[in-house]
């Protein structure tokens, strides 16, 4: 009886309920492949850290050329692409050429992002499986993204990238930069740095955006290469031929660079072992182990088991890579390894790594069907038959843009929620202006007030969605409806305020101990209430102790002139101006001047006539 009605009768994919599926391989047989995959990912992290050290002394094009050359040598030796399989046609050679060009461009973006962000952040951003990125894009841009779990994974991925962009304290590299803008080692490096500078962001933040772009290009590149790999006789043969063509493409460029640029390498012989390590760990071992594990396991399991060790090892190596013990263990020469503290480990990176691990685990998991079913009868053999509602659950999920669109539609239907939404947009505008100016001037007051307004906006957003959810109908699980969710949203808003108050308090204590330098010149406009603008500022020094000045201030009509004069005088006196003349101008002043504009031209003509008169010493004049 137990054998007839055992768990295998109802077990679906992954061991859950949901109909028939592929027979799972026993976990004991997969253990050796999982261990091999984890070890390979750790070694790949080691190889990428070694690559970052090599790129300090080797030009990026020369580095990619050596990597392609070493990979082509090993793959030709193992795969024998010219002697095995059917012959390659002319049309296929053209496609392989395009494949090699695209591969070189992606490698260039990848390793240039490595030089900007460092190995830790490069591993966190670039080492994601294709299935993770495809799941992310399907959640964001399709209506069948895989349910709430996939949406949560996509949100974690986006939060991780935002943490690297906004909360990663990695500006030490910018302070230690050896290249002034406009002067670089080569024309290629100059063009890439110019493109980053055009975005108006720091180098490491531009590197984050560059690596995200390279990741999307890599996934599209792999997807487009599948048909070509089938035509030429497999992925391994395609990779071998593509690397050979890449070497031929890069060879003239490397020769020109070797002749026209000065090399930083003292001895190429000392770099043989590091380059061999990088080629084997980053290119050869990772490619073959991924191919083997993809055959023995599901692709989703390979992505899930491979992401965790590479992210954890990246964090560990990021903390200990510059330690003296690791310097002794590494094979690279001492000249390339001077003491370095750029791209250090920060709290933003740790938080980002946690979110990347969570998102990779969720997005690489197969879409789960409904696990509960309804008994609809028995088969002739007596086996119970269930109706599972997995498809219904899948079709009910929505993409993020569609969910936002429908939520906005419901918000704008009600008058109260519509007014709150308009106030939210206005409040967000002032919030970002205040945060931008606070960061620009290094003013903790503006930054803290900006974050306070930001959490006010988050409270408004949460209140709006709580109001929407409170209108939902009661379900079997929540039989009393969702009316109490508004109270829960108020509690969460209170927790947010406690969190931001804690961070403001810690920053205040740090600034009390070590006060930063404030840009008071740019803060002048923010300190005067009612100020619209100013014009014609003139300041000059009469003597060593006397600095005089005049300025015109335009203010709103409801402020007191005496108060404006006192505030402006106090601010400029702190700046060293001790003899000041201020003209306060309101709208009534300009209206009065416009009323006098009819006689202004007559006065101007008379003034010019007086200036043209010539006087004698006795006081008489002639025209």
Word description of this protein:
By secondary structure, the chain is mainly alpha-helical. It has 3 domains: 27-363, no CATH class; 399-513, no CATH class; 528-586, Cation efflux protein, cytoplasmic domain (Alpha-Beta Plaits). Helices cover 66% and strands 7% of the residues. A 3-stranded mixed sheet has the order 3-4-5. Helix 12 runs antiparallel to helix 14 and helix 17 (415-441) runs antiparallel to helix 18 (444-469). The longest helix is centred in the first third of the chain and has 37 residues, at 90-126. The chain is globular, with a radius of gyration of 34 Å. It starts with 6 loop residues before the first helix and ends with a strand. Mean pLDDT is 75; it is low at 1-24, 171-183, 331-341, 388-397 and 615-623.
Topology:
Layout: H1 7-10, H2 27-54, H3 60-79, H4 90-126, H5 130-141, H6 148-166, H7 172-175, H8 187-198, H9 203-232, H10 235-260, H11 272-296, H12 299-320, H13 324-329, H14 347-363, E1 373-378, E2 384-388, H15 390-395, H16 400-413, H17 415-441, H18 444-469, H19 485-513, H20 520-527, E3 531-541, E4 547-555, H21 561-574, E5 579-585, H22 587-595, H23 597-611, E6 614-615, E7 621-622
Parallel strand pairs: 4-5
Antiparallel strand pairs: 1-2, 3-4, 6-7
Organism: Tursiops truncatus (Atlantic bottle-nosed dolphin)
GO cellular component, one term: ER to Golgi transport vesicle membrane
GO molecular function: antiporter activity; metal ion binding; zinc ion transmembrane transporter activity
